[in-house]
Task: structure prediction
Amino acid sequence: MVCLHTAEGQKLFFQTVYVEMGSEARSDLLRPLGTKLNELGCVLTDDHQHTSTDGLFAAGDVVRSLDQISVAMGQAAIAATAIHNRLRSSETTV
Ligand SMILES: Cc1cc2nc3c(=O)[nH]c(=O)nc-3n(C[C@H](O)[C@H](O)[C@H](O)COP(=O)(O)OP(=O)(O)OC[C@H]3O[C@@H](n4cnc5c(N)ncnc54)[C@H](O)[C@@H]3O)c2cc1C
Result:
């Protein structure tokens, strides 16, 4: 049994409590850059996690996708690979 204490001082008892799905993207840092966001403030990326701002990659809950740890980790791996390849190709052109 779970007992919830409300802000009003009421006690509510439940067998099970589960959090509601959903999150609020904290993308305010990106707004001055003009990075493209959707109507919910989630960052829009291409298939390599590259945003509309050149050289800026994004992964995790801030991106429009399923908000799960495994998704964030997969996106981070994709972004890291794209960043690695981008850096490597810039080295060869110098
Ligand atoms: C209650 C709850 C239960 C969950 N349960 C599960 C689960 O069972 N399994 C699962 O896979 N996922 C679960 N999730 C989702 C999972 O936690 C997220 O998908 C995951 O943490 C996303 O990782 P992230 O690095 O993108 O974002 P976060 O983990 O949110 O990390 C973002 C970090 O950036 C920091 N930050 C934000 N704005 C700024 C700023 N302007 N300057 C500096 N720092 C900043 C934040 O403080 C935070 O530390 C759950 C989420 C919640 C809320």
User: Anything to note?
Assistant: DSSP finds one helix and two strands in the chain. Helices lie at 69-93. The first strand starts at residue 2 and ends at 5. Residues 19, 26, 29, 60-61, 67-70, 72 surround flavin-adenine dinucleotide (CB under 6 Å).
